[in-house]
Specification:
Layout (H helix, E strand, L loop, with lengths): L26 H116 L10 E2 L3 E2 L11 E6 L2 E3 L11 E6 L9 E2 L15 E6 L2 E3 L12 E6 L9 E5 L12 E11 L16 E6 L8 E3 L3 E8 L5 H17 L8 E8 L3 E8 L2 H9 L10 H15 L6 E7 L6 H14 L1 E6 L6 H7 L20 H8 L3 E3 L27 H4 L20 H7 L18 E3 L7 E3 L7 E2 L3
Length: 607
């Protein structure tokens, strides 16, 4: 693992050694002052947000009330117009009805007079006819003749059909009658057919309406509104034709309540396990079908009633796993004063080790690095070249000063936008002591990051505010929050890889001829013997009187040192002590140690 300790400035002995006059050269004090300024800025921002939210709510309520008043005024005006129209129609109808009543009375009087005149004329005719017949008989009697006369008798007129049903000029109609008794010495038969005018009145004209228009927008978004459609009159009715129906049609709309809670779907299927090892989760959700309306409520999507989880793959991750997932990884490295030079050196080592554990390529990983302190800068854009990225990481210098995490996240977004792939998921990893100067600024930028990438925090040290970091990380926070100590930073890398990657594998590559850097999964010797677990052949870690593991000369506990040289609870071949070739212990007393060769191919996890 490459390091460049020469570029790390000497770390101050304590904060108390810094003075106001020396503050420009005191990164820890500068970071503390920046944190105080950030807290003041956060408080001001929260108050401004509260004022803004209050003003926004008041403006919204005022707008709603003004809209309701305007709508009610419009409805009142429309109702008054309709009332005036209907009142006018009623007055006109009453006046027309009065005239019609007068006309009817006159026509009924005229009809009665005509009936009386007709009855008088009929009676006079009958009397005249009777008198003529009497005179005729008297004349014959004067000549002593007693003839019997038979006048022609005919039926009443039988009307035929009119040539037209209606019209301005009318039509013609034939009337016919039949002979009931032929004349015998009496009066001959009158005409048996005649023609008369008929249907001398205008034809009725039915009303003709145009097509309906489309429905208008609803007058209210909720609480019951009205949609309107209209049509025009193409032909008014006349002469008793079918009258016109209404030119306007309405129907109710948006009758649902203005305030309603959201509608939630049933449980989804359980997801696959989020990690292949180290403790993942399977989860399911109740998604939102219909959002809340008005003052309605909806439980948070991550509430227990809407999100359930179960643990899975709780077994420990092997220490030699690597990541083969297709993912764009952007590492955001803290270089602020509060981290101190020693902590920054650990970060550089960790990022270098992470690059070594990623398989980079078109169908696998791509990585970029951003460093931040009081400002942020790009260490490496998104790249497939692991060697180049590690060289740039090794050249990073401790920046000291403030902890402007918001600038780091914002720069990370820009780097992902410029060099990320559209077909690969994006992952932003923040490694920091977790004490940014301005929480409000970080909160705003973290929300933007989470919209397009998974946001993971790797806080180191004892001062990290895990609750706050969990609120910034992607959900669920415990799956995107990996707290580490400076002492165990590099040894927790397998667990971090399992958290970040869905495709883990064991690499058979080695750069040293003797295999001292080999971390593959060969567990069979060249002679075909099965390797024994290293923990079966090594003494247990040394403990002090308090039960703590004793530090060795390199500053590691014995168990940590074993991990450094690639040993652990496995039986894979290793070369931890500089022998000529890979080897392992066996359970064969005749050959307790045997040499190994790497496997021909990488092995996918679990192996």
């Amino acid at each position: 693992m490459e390091t460049n300790s020469s570029v790390i400035p000497e770390e101050p002995a304590a904060v108390g050694s810094c003075t106001v006059s020396s503050s420009p050269n005191c990164p820890i004090l500068n970071d503390a002052i920046a944190t105080m300024a950030g807290e003041i800025s956060d408080t001001v921002q929260m108050l401004q947000d509260h004022i803004s939210n209050t003003n926004e709510m008041c403006t919204k309520l005022l707008g709603e009330y003004e809209a309701q008043v305007k709508e009610n005024d419009g409805a009142l005006d429309a109702a008054q117009v309709k009332l005036a129209e209907v009142t006018g129609k009623i007055n006109a109808a009453e006046q027309a009805m009065s005239l019609r009543d007068q006309e009817r009375a006159l026509m009924e009087k005229e009809l009665e007079d005509k009936r009386d005149e007709c009855a008088s004329s009929q009676k006079a005719g009958q009397q005249t006819m009777c008198g003529l017949k009497s005179v005729r008989l008297e004349i014959y009697h004067m000549h002593d003749e007693r003839p019997i006369f038979q006048d022609c008798e005919v039926t009443d007129w039988i009307p035929g059909e009119c040539s037209v049903s209606c019209g301005e000029d009318g039509g013609t109609q034939m009337l016919n009658r039949k002979v009931v008794a032929q004349a015998d010495g009496g009066a001959v038969c009158p005409p048996l057919a005649m023609q008369q005018a008929c249907n001398e009145f205008p034809c009725p004209i039915d009303c003709a309406m145009g097509d309906w228009s489309g429905w208008s927008a609803c007058s209210k978004d909720c609480g019951g509104g009205v949609e309107v459609r209209a049509r025009h009159t193409k032909q008014e009715s006349a002469h008793g034709g079918d009258v016109c129906e209404s030119n306007e049609d309405t129907r109710q709309c948006n009758g649902f309540a203005c305030t309603a809670d959201c509608v939630i779907d049933d449980w989804s299927e359980w997801t696959p396990c989020s990690q292949q090892c180290g403790g993942g989760i399977i989860s399911r959700r109740k998604t939102e079908i219909t959002p809340p309306r008005g003052e309605g409520k909806c439980e948070d999507e991550n509430a227990k009633t809407r999100f359930e989880r179960k643990e899975c793959n709780m077994h420990q991750c092997p220490d030699n796993v690597m990541c083969e997932s297709m993912v764009d990884v952007l590492v955001v490295v803290d270089g602020s004063g509060s981290l101190r030079a020693s902590g920054f050196a650990k970060e550089r080592e960790w990022v270098t080790a992470l690059v070594d554990r990623l398989s980079l390529g078109d169908t696998t990983g791509k990585i970029g690095v951003v460093q931040f302190a009081d400002e942020a800068h790009v260490v490496s854009p998104m790249s497939f070249d692991a060697t180049e990225v590690k060289e740039k990481v090794a050249a990073m210098q401790w920046g000291g000063a403030a902890t402007n995490l918001a600038a780091g996240l914002s720069t990370a977004l820009n780097v992902l936008t410029a060099g990320g792939r559209t077909d690969a998921p994006s992952l932003v990893i923040v490694i920091s002591d977790g004490v940014p100067n301005s929480h409000e600024d970080v909160k705003i930028v973290a929300n933007k990051v989470r919209r397009g990438a998974r946001l993971v925090f790797v806080p180191i040290g004892e001062d990290a505010d895990l609750t706050t970091l969990g609120g910034w990380a992607s959900y669920p926070p415990d799956q995107n929050l990996v707290p580490l100590s400076k002492e165990t930073l590099e040894f927790k890398l397998p667990f971090v890889l399992a958290t970040l990657c869905s495709d883990l594998f064991c690499s058979e590559a080695m750069t040293n001829a003797d295999g001292s850097d080999y971390r593959g999964c060969q567990s069979v010797t060249t002679s075909g013997k099965r390797c024994a677990a290293w923990t079966d052949k090594l003494p247990p870690p040394a403990l002090d009187a308090l039960g703590n593991e004793v530090l060795n000369d390199e500053g590691h506990t014995s168990s940590q040192h074993r991990q450094v040289i690639g040993l652990g609870e496995h039986n894979f071949c290793r070369n931890p002590d500089g022998r000529a070739q890979l080897y392992c212990y066996t359970n064969d007393p005749d050959m307790p140690v045997d040499n190994c060769d790497p496997l021909a191919h990488n092995m996918n996890y679990p192996f």
